[in-house]
Amino acid sequence: MNRPKRYLFFCLWLSLLDSLPVGADPASFDFSHQISPILAKVGCSAAECHGGATGQGGFKLSLFAADPEVDYQAIVHELDGRRLDLLDPEQSLFLRKPSRDGVKHKGGRLFHSDDALYRALRDWIGEGAPFRRGPIEYLTGLEILAHGERYRVEASFETRHGTKLRDVTALALLESTNEQVAIIREDGTIQARAPGETWFLARYGQLSSRIPFRTAFHSNVAVAKKERRHPLDEVWYDRLKELGLESLGAAKETTLVRRLYFDLTGRPPDSLELQAFLQSDPASRVAETAARLVETEAFNHVFSRAIAGFFEIPVAGKDPRNAKDRNNRLRAFFSDAVKSRVTLERIADSVLVDPEAQASWRHFSDPRDRAEYVGRTLLGMRIGCARCHNHPLDRWTNQEHLAFSAYFTDPRPGPQGSMMAGKFFLPGEGTAVEPQLLPVALGSAPKALKREEEVSWLVREGARDQFARNMGNRLFGLLMGRSLVDLADDHRLTNPAIHESMLALLATTFIELETDLRAFVQFVVTSDLYALSSVPPDHEAVSGDPERQYLARREARTLTSEQLKEAVEFVLGVSIAAETPPESPLARQLYLINSGMLRSGLEAEGNQVDLILLFEAKASAQLTELYRLILSRDPSEAERQAFVPLLQSADSRVRVLKDLAFALLASREFGSVR
């Protein structure tokens, strides 16, 4: 009796070996590497299935198969092992349900009996459903690679004989970030659908990897050569060539000067500044103007507010809660830092170690909230999902989140009346958690640092590249109207930058410039990319044209409510006692027309429109000066033909000119940077 049974198990073991991925050690088997990935691949462990908080039908798996040992217990031992039939594997409830073999399954049919994954599960059960057998192998790396006309997923395992590479494509979960461009099938083959770029993502075990895939819009795109090209333009033009796109060219010089002044000072140029820019050398005027503007008080005002925004400090006056002393003090801190030319690296250090600047995160009472704040503001990484569970497409685990949170506890009383570091206890268990930095650091922090100093070391040195990517991306978005990583605090595997090479260059440059704000701003604004036109090639496809999507043209941006009110006051040369306009486009337009803000500014004594009437007698000259004052350009020929006769024949030229000024100030052109 024993011999046939041993013979049966021997045959089943051989069939299991046949199902192992290429390169597997026949002497080694691990549920975590060969069975658990199947649960994730077919969706059994998804949140809407058995991976949900309460499972399905009394069967609960870990979310995304994140805990193989728990899943093994549920499959093999729970309910006295009723889910498996070791003598007749195909009669196992674990197999009959997902294959719909005479048993209803709410999740539908996931397998057929001739599927490779079904056979792998069946053979595993027939072998006795082991968790691990043979030498232990440790999954250490994952990479998705182009392999001819298909993509292969390759896993690295540390074994007793060294590192082994294994093709795990059949077990990996594959997806495309943009299926309109291309899809990737379960076997790694692809189907290109449209021009553009997508990223193929692969997940196996608890590791993920990605690789870009592009299809050009046009072939043989010509790129103009320059003897000396800005470094940012080098990677930009290379990118456009790969995608088969051509730059739409530079913006008009009047558009460029208005853009430069608004971005660096929060206001348009006055008539003299406009004239000086237009008459200066085209090869150097942007660099010279930027060098002058970054030294102004207006630059300090604009960028201290922007940097405070990076750290989630609200703008004064937008909400009654924003009048808190804490926010006022923090706004003053960032204002003083920018004015004093403190580098962004030192600002980050102050936020973490300076008691005054620590108020930016100490108002959170929960150490986990504090840790998440530091993650998203300083590293551009959302770690909040790991508060509840391990997610396969997130780099953070629940344990790493808790350990990092332990850095942000409040001090507690120590011996002899002194204060000592606080303790963070595991929620629901009461076990103390030892602080540990997020595993992104290159090297280890110096010994004997205080907790806040250790976190500061992580940001400024250990993970300096990620800090640079975060700040470079945010500043680029401020100057270009859109950031390279959409959602600036969400640098994760599944949210790639629209231009990874450009982001890498920005990070490198940010570090080379020693995180100097003014130098970095000048670096960006002196590129051809910054001077790019925002006019769409096809007015019927403004929101979806590939030129806008892939930075072959700029994105026009709407002024913030604060910028709009300040710009109106600058243009008219008066202070206006009115509320800040609403953010909603429709509400803002109605406010500008009906609130009286513009009228009160135009009627204020000594406003700039009155000065135009005082110093210019001819209607044509008055119209020109008005357009230069408000829109930083001369009126078009059509505008001259429409308005000059109107001014000439008006009974009250003052009223007509002010009505026209009202219309220009309320226009979309004035309220945006193009």
Write a concise keyword list for the protein shown above.
674 residues; mainly alpha; Immunoglobulin-like; three-stranded antiparallel beta sheet; 10% strand; elongated
Biggest sheet details: 3 strands, antiparallel
Number of strands: 16
**Structural Rg:** 31 Å
- The termini sit apart by 85 Å
The quaternary state of the protein chains shown equals single chain
> Which blocks of ≥5 consecutive residues have pLDDT under 50?
1-24
Mean pLDDT: 88
Neighbour order of strands in the largest sheet: 3-4-5
Task: Itemize the secondary structure elements and their pairings.
Elements: H1 2-19, E1 29-30, H2 31-34, H3 36-41, H4 68-81, H5 93-96, H6 116-126, E2 132-133, E3 138-147, E4 150-159, E5 162-167, E6 173-176, E7 182-184, E8 190-192, E9 196-204, E10 207-215, H7 231-243, H8 253-265, H9 271-279, H10 285-293, H11 297-310, H12 325-339, H13 344-353, H14 359-362, H15 367-378, H16 398-405, E11 412-413, E12 419-420, E13 424-425, E14 432-433, H17 451-462, H18 464-480, H19 500-512, H20 517-525, H21 546-549, E15 557-558, H22 561-572, H23 585-594, H24 597-603, H25 608-615, H26 619-631, H27 637-649, H28 653-665, E16 672-673
Antiparallel strand pairs: 1-2, 3-4, 4-5, 6-9, 7-8, 9-10, 11-12, 13-14, 15-16
Helix pairs in contact: 1-6, 7-19, 8-10, 10-20, 11-12, 13-17, 15-16, 17-18, 18-19, 18-20, 25-26, 26-28
